[in-house]
Amino acid sequence: MSVMEVMDASAPTHIAHRDNHTHRDVNGGWLRPAVFGAMDGLVSNLALMTGVAGGAASQQTIIITGLAGLAAGAFSMAAGEYTSVASQRELVLAELDVERRELRKHPKDELEELAALYESRGVEPELAREVARQLSKDPEQALEIHAREELGIDPSDLPSPTVAAVSSFGSFALGALLPVLPYLLGASQLWPAVLLALVGLFGCGAVVARVTARSWWFSGLRQLALGGAAAGVTYVLGTLFGTAVG
């Protein structure tokens, strides 16, 4: 059976599969890093502010602390994300250069390697070699296939350090702004900030359920409990430290 016959025979199955069988985005796409960035900002700034408030700090001190935590955390997240993604991208590009040189210097060996890979997955030896031969005609296509099969990456879909840094900065800042917002609007007590932050935590947890198998209410309540616990512990510590220093 030829390669084209195999592809033609399997076409109806692929169409039916696409129409009747779908999967979640297991990588989360843009949603996962955005939601977790906002959640990180919420939890860390809420905990920071409740810790300071527990030490009987003034309203102005709490506001300054919240804004400082927002700025420091957002810039730190952006810098860390940029460095991490840039380093990963540079490593991937270096490995792609290695694979590109191998394809240029040892095309037959690379073709046999690709054929052996298909054989290991159950393709008949003759058909595997024919598939590998046809796919290796275009150097760029061959590079993409080897990268996918050997490195598990898509050369045409590498992450952008700039996009990662900007999205991390924005999502963290948005999350960290919530507990500060009531104070900026004139609140003089801690409870409105805590209430708004906890609502935000529940909302973030519910949105995370879109990329998990959990129900929205379970995910929301779990994040609410974890964030609330972090805020409660830091408030108690702030109270103890404030009493000790005082």
Describe what you observe in this structure.
With 246 residues, the protein is mainly alpha-helical. The model is unreliable at 1-17 and 25-29 (pLDDT under 50). Helices cover 81% and strands 0% of the residues.
Draw up the topology in text:
Elements: H1 3-20, H2 31-54, H3 59-105, H4 107-120, H5 125-135, H6 139-151, H7 161-184, H8 191-208, H9 216-245
Largest sheet: none
Shape: elongated
From N to C, what is the helix and strand string? Answer: HHHHHHHHH
Put simply, the count of helices is: 9
Model regions low in confidence, pLDDT < 50 over at least 5 residues: 1-17, 25-29
Q: Count all strands and give the number.
A: 0
Approximately how much beta-strand content do the residues carry?
Answer: under 5%
Structural class: mainly alpha
Rg over CA atoms: 26 Å
- Average pLDDT, rounded to a whole number, is 83
Helix content: over 70%
End-to-end separation:
85 Å
